[in-house]
Amino acid sequence: MNKVQLGSSDLHVTPICLGTMTFGEQVDEATAHRILDRSLERGINFLDTAEMYSVPARAETFGATETILGNWFAKHPSARGQLVLASKVAGPARGMPWIRNGSTDLTAADIVGACNDSLKRLKTDVIDLYQIHWPARHVPAFGALYFDPAKDKAVSSIHQQLEALAGLVRAGKVRAIGLSNETPYGVHEFVRLAEQHGLPRVATVQNPYCLVNRTVENGLDETMHRLGVSLLAYSPLAFGLLTGKYDQSGIDGPDAPKDARIAKFESVRMQRWGRPEALAAARRYNALARAHGLTPSQLALAFCYTKWQVASTIIGVTSVAQLDEDLDAHGTTLSPEVLAEIDKIRWEARDPAL
């Protein structure tokens, strides 16, 4: 795979990134290490994690994924230099009291403290890409539809957060910075303030992007293109909706897979991926894939792998077999006819998993 540059940073990554949020919940440490071994063997040089992982988030597993990765790095010290490692500091607690005692803010001190803790768990001296997992300010995210000014509250400013990230870069603990679950306004403001004050420029934004959630194309893609910020697309398979596994059973039916995230965890179902409209749209895309000799996963992944908006697609797996299947889909091309059919479905179904 040809590597892509992330924003204007010096980070060059494969167009597929191994997401690790299943490690420590659905995936035990031994299996996680086998997945990591295979990913490295297949040439993937980009790993993404977060302090709050594994998911679904629980107090008992806070930091578990980073710990599993750190243990793998300890076993394979030469691997660290071959990989671009990304992690994230959680934003305001959002109902998770174990994150900084339920703080409704993300202060400069929080960012620095979280980074230091992640470095210890990861058993490394530097995080290549350090991201803010979600904004401190009020934004519509995780299934919310509308911005509501009445929900605004006093929180640490973007400038203060940038200053903290700049300090981590100066200290050599972070190489580049990024955002996640951001809006066009947020991206533009981070870039504007960085340029105004001589602070690090955000290299990336990690947002959901898949067939049933293309909201990135509602203005964020232009912002990122014009400002030179790269998109890291997460949930390309829409938490399994776009694999076809729920086409017959539904999400909660008696025959639904019991070990899948969306079926197993209520918190996931309550968000965007559990909407009946999202499953209905996914079934249409899955049927389109089969009609053209593709598996649903091949269609969904090829869509992300080939879009100009996407720098790297983050895949999350629970087995080596799933990893190989997702990697093997790279190189799949979609005909103009298929792309037109995809757009036709989107016009009718819109973005039901936004």
UniProtKB/TrEMBL annotation:
Q: Domain of life of the organism in this record?
A: Bacteria
List the Gene3D superfamilies: NADP-dependent oxidoreductase domain
The reply to whether Oxidoreductase figures as a keyword in the UniProt entry is yes
Database matches in Pfam families: Aldo_ket_red
* All residue ranges annotated as the NADP-dependent oxidoreductase domain in the record: 15-345
Q: Which UniProt keywords apply?
A: Oxidoreductase
UniProt entry tagged with the keyword Oxidoreductase: yes
Q: Which InterPro entries match?
A: AKR_Detox_Biosynth (IPR050523), NAD(P)_OxRdtase_dom_sf (IPR036812), NADP_OxRdtase_dom (IPR023210)
Secretion signal span: none
Q: What is this protein called?
A: Aldo/keto reductase
Q: Which organism is it from?
A: Polaromonas jejuensis
